[in-house]
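Look at a sample.

——
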Amino acid sequence: MNEQVERAEAEVPSGPYVTMTRADWAAVADTFPLELDHPLLTSLRGVGDPTDLLEVQEVYRPLTELLSLYREHTSKLHSVSLAYLRQNVRQTPFVIGVAGSVAVGKSTTARLLRELLSRGPGRPKVDLITTDGFLYPNAVLEDRGILNRKGFPESYDRKALLKFVMDVKSGEPEVTAPVYSHLVYDIVPGEQVVIRHPDILIVEGLNVLEPARVRSDGRTSLAVSDFFDFSIYVDAATTHIKQWYVSRFLTLRETAFSDPRSYFVRFANMPDDLARATATEIWDTINGPNLVVNIRPTRGRATAILRKNENHQVSWVRIRKV
């Protein structure tokens, strides 16, 4: 991909955003304590993700501070509004969406934010849910002929995901979500994640910023992002994400894929050249098109954009103007 295309990928209309270099972004961090150590950070990182403590200090600490400010003022608005309406309703959770491509590092971002926010003012209860649990089971995808489109919008039970986020945001005392296993590459029958009154809920997934759809009768339906108080898009050039995906695939051959229970065990003993060719084909036919057609077009809907360079490090940040 040439430099002109790379620049075009990075372009987001600047009008709605404030753009800050990494150095300027790091400089805004003020009082938030950094309590992560290297072993904990290692446990939070995804496969092949090199995020280090300096990245946490310079990128995720200011982001956590900003999120805490948003949450504080959202809470104040809630209180003032209810006082005006003479209502006494429990404070609803602050919901954060985290979106981005496969292999871009959005899962690491979501897990880091969960840890850092839970150490913030008042030690809030922070829960994290991934949209993988709302994928249709493989049997359903096979029946519909779209197993090879897992991760595309049509592979998710969007109604169930919407109801889950709506129920959490509405203050339901207990809300459940299905469990997805990356080992067996499928929904785990009978297992559930239970969410009980979080102060903050992080929703991480490929398509969480997808806009509402127009129904056949012309009405507009609700979207999951309608219930977000803040949203983050983790971004990078397609060529870099593809490289990270292929590298991760090669690493997984020696780790998760080698487990006899793994759906991908057939890839474990592949020679390097064949494994690289297989990963490239998967990217070129599934993950790459999904990024271009469905995921990246939602970037401009995010409150914050974290743009990574070829070294997997955030080089600049854009924050939507309030």
Notes: The chain has a mean pLDDT of 91.
